[in-house]
Amino acid sequence: MHQTVKDMIINLVYLVENHGFVPNGGRVYYLRRSQPPFLIPMVYDYYEATGDISFVNEILPTLEKELNFWYENRQTNVSLVGEEVQVFRYYSASNVPRPESYREDMLLVQNVNDTTEKRKIWSNLASAAESGWDFSSRWFKDLHNLSTIDTSNVLPVDLNAFMCGNLNMLSFLFEKAGATSKAENYQQKFENFKRVFQKVFYVGKERGWYDYNLRNASHNIHFYPSMLTPLFTQCYHSLDVSTVEEMFEHMEKKGAFKYKGGVPSSLLTTDQQWDFPNGWSPSNHMVVEGLRKTDSPKLQQKAFEIAEKWVLSNYFVYTKTSNMWEKYNVNGSYPDAGSGGEYVVQSGFGWTNGAILDLLITYSDRMYFPQLNQVMAESKTIGEIQNQLDEIQSVDSMAQKQLDTKIFNNSGHSIVTNFKILALIFTISKIFLHFSF
Predict the structure, then answer these.
(1) Record's superkingdom (predicted)?
(2) For 20-156, where are the alpha helices, taking DSSP H only?
(3) Could you tell me the sign of the dihedral formed by the alpha carbons of 376, 377, 381, 383, in that order?
């Protein structure tokens, strides 16, 4: 599978070499909007798995080219407390209806008479589409009204955290390639951008990082799991245990982690697919990884609990529908396939499979579900399933931990096998996770 991953990278590198960036999809009409900047993390994961520095060295100039696309086309200025700094936003050059959603985009502006305003709306729709969060209340002036979409005025926490992490990973790759000067240059950019990032996005009284709106010069203090992305990319100078625990507790008080099906995309109920009650694998995965990377034992345990919840919920829905889904309804007694947005929920699904497999691998030493099938048959809600499993685990943990493989249930079937994704090894799961937008 390493060769398969390498071939996928070669395809994406080809796109960057010919178009300057990774388009939103492999079609001509996607050439005016990008994917989120995940090519560098993809190559970083490939190198970590293979040690193939020869290939990495060959494509490093292309990785720089893609990074420069974001600096040249998606960077903007923001003035804060007398200092002007540069950060990133999603900003598509397209100002016409999206070809793949032409009808929807035309209907959205049917009551708008001004052509300039129509084009602004279409541009902001395309900009939100390149974010992967299409669509979410994050991008709206009126949080419940898609026609007020204003993506180009939103400075997203996650995009800037991704760019921050990319500088660090690119420094690492250049160092491994023996290009010391380049490595030092990108490391210095990483250190400088961490300061800028904290200045623009951190809100002390709200205990966290929040999207910043250029139009009204204020932060959007609603909960979105994207606000935990800086923990995932480690875009901070220092973060003591008490501070990061306060961040988590603040989000916990808002109700972000109370749902049995996983972490929702927001706590706002709209008709958009990236809002409540939908939860998505990339978001849940990044929340888990971000908390796991902290120095707080408490939050590391919370990361495991969220991972266990997400795996169990996905498995539960799989047993009921025989499918993995792109998104899930995390609310109510039982999780279910998600809904909302412009199209019927999709089965498959690359980033769901990738996230699940990565979580199973990460927690293979402690994530096990004794008597799972029996418990599922006897329980009425996902909460009851989790409670019964906790009781069984607390009694049986010492004996269970003596098993060579801890992820098997009593019937002898591994959850990995039941998901039918065993063939997706760790590295390719990361590729699907990064590029399933």
Answers:
(1) Eukaryota
(2) 39-50, 53-73, 102-108, 115-131
(3) negative
**CA 391 and chain centroid, separation:** 32
Contact 170, 67 (CB under 8 A): yes
Which entry of 134, 158, 211, 289 is annotated as an active-site residue?
A: 134
Terminal CA-to-CA distance of the chain, rounded, Å? 22
CA pair distance 354, 401, nearest whole angstrom = 26
Closest to 91 (Cα-Cα) out of 129, 39, 61, 59? 129
Half-sphere exposure of residue 303, counting CA atoms within 13 Å on the CB side?
A: 25
Q: Degrees (nearest 5) of the Cα angle 285, 290, 292?
A: 95
Per residue of the chain (437 residues), give pLDDT as tens: 899 999 999 999 999 999 999 999 999 999 999 999 999 999 999 999 999 999 999 999 999 999 999 999 999 999 987 899 999 999 999 999 999 999 999 999 999 999 999 999 999 999 999 999 999 999 999 999 999 999 999 999 999 999 999 999 999 999 999 999 999 999 999 999 999 999 999 999 999 999 999 999 999 999 999 999 999 999 998 889 999 999 999 999 999 999 999 999 999 999 999 999 999 999 999 999 999 999 999 999 999 999 999 999 999 999 889 999 999 999 977 789 999 999 999 999 999 999 999 999 999 998 877 667 777 777 767 777 777 777 766 665 554 444 333 433 333 334 444 443 333 344 444 444 555 54
CA dihedral defined by 350, 62, 234, 312, rounded to 10 degrees? 10
SS3 255: coil
> Cα dihedral sign for 288, 290, 292, 296?
negative
Residue 288: which H helix or E strand, with range?
Answer: helix 281-292
Tokens of 207: 């205990």
Place of tokens 């829905």: 317
Tell me the DSSP string of 339-376.
--SSSPPPBS-HHHHHHHHHHHHHTTTT---TTHHHHH
For residues 176-190, b (16+ Cβ closer than 10 Å) or e, as one string? bbebeebbeebbebb
Asked if 396 is an active-site residue, the reply is: no
DSSP string, 303-328: HHHHHHHHHHHHHHHHHHHS--BSEE
Catalytic residue, chosen from 211, 326, 336, 358, is 326
Q: Does residue 134 carry a catalytic annotation?
A: yes
